[in-house]
Amino acid sequence: MLAECLAGTRVLDLTQYIPGPFATQWLADLGAEVVKVEPPAGDPMRTMGPVDADGTTSFYKLANRNKVVVRLDLKTEPGKAGLTKLLAAADVLVEAYRPGVLDRLGFSADELARINPRLIHCSLSGYGQTGPHAPVAGHDLTYVALTGGLFASGIAGRPVMTFPPLADHAGAMLAVQGVLAALLRRGRTGKGARLDISLSEAALSWMGGVLTAAHRGGEARREHDIINGGAAFYRIYRTGDGRFVALGAIEEKFWRGFCVAVGREEWIHRQFEPMPQNELIAELEALFLTRTRDDWAALLCPADCCFEPVLEPAEAAHHPQWKERDLIHVGKDKDDVAEVLLPVFLDGARAHDRRPFKEDDVQAVLATWR
């Protein structure tokens, strides 16, 4: 089972907001025991945005299920002592402080190595631990802005921000990969590790194609290339009922299948007209306005032409593919959230259902971390 992969692994989570909590939650899905340490006032994500009747946001609940949460004031000696005991018993530390903060709190790299030489310490920050931007504050939008990817994304007139946040989730995934690699190395060598993972660099790692085009003298012109809206066969179209559909008929056989299904065989030879294919795009826009989204889905989904309706969030959980895979769980316990389980199937089995986070104290945790 998936939960056997990291069974017995203890993860200490000193992160807030989105990236670190999601990373440690995925480690919990793999079987790790995760203890999240928060300041006395709690993770700011608890109250950032609309709160539920219990005073906590759904975003916080979604990112912190499967965890035990303890509160420590790391500016006090009792708080530092409590963290020291947890560190001594932990396998992995994931923290998201700005560079230098842990040092000022008394937990430098040398001190962490003294407390626990086998500790895998993952620092998850905006720009990394070194470089002129290391101390600069940021959030997902500003991280992606520095990669070139934000400029390359969106409509012709302007860049458009991604949602959900790209760098935050890419960074969470990269942190999990780094921790798993370090655990494998420790299994061979017994050595701990220091991982320096940057949210902005996680996004940057996806930008090779964008940067290569620029290096070769190209220009990132939105809605001018195949997969950024310049091709008629790879676009989002509005339908007659004000909803949307997605057409991704890149291969010739799929484009041919689309043209035949809609009765426009004369379009088949136009697939590779110069881009942007504004004239052909306009013709497809007019066509899609003649029927509703669901009418187009009834016609084109069976045609096997890389077409799908653009589902609204309230519809996604009911799609037969996601229902069959049983990854979306809606309102199944007191948290009343719609969560997506870790989409990894091991020997045909998916991740275990997650449980709501539980508040506890350090002594209770240490009693089990002996």
Structure description:
By secondary structure, the chain is an alpha/beta fold. It has 2 domains: 2-205 and 326-369, Crotonobetainyl-coa:carnitine coa-transferase, domain 1 (Rossmann fold); 234-238 and 244-309, formyl-coa transferase, domain 3 (2-Layer Sandwich). It is 37% helix and 15% strand. It is built from 16 helices and 14 strands. The protein has helices spanning 19-29, 58-64, 77-89, 101-104, 109-115, 140-145, 149-152, 166-189, 199-204, 208-215, 252-261, 278-288, 293-300, 313-316, 320-325, 362-368; strands at 10-14, 33-38, 67-71, 92-95, 120-125, 154-155, 158-159, 193-198, 234-238, 244-248, 307-309, 328-330, 338-340, 358-359. The strands form 4 sheets. Strands 8-5-4-1-2-3-14 form a 7-stranded parallel β-sheet, with helices on both faces. A hairpin with a 2-residue loop joins strand 6 and strand 7. The longest helix is centred in the middle third of the chain and has 24 residues, at 166-189. The protein is elongated, with a radius of gyration of 24 Å.
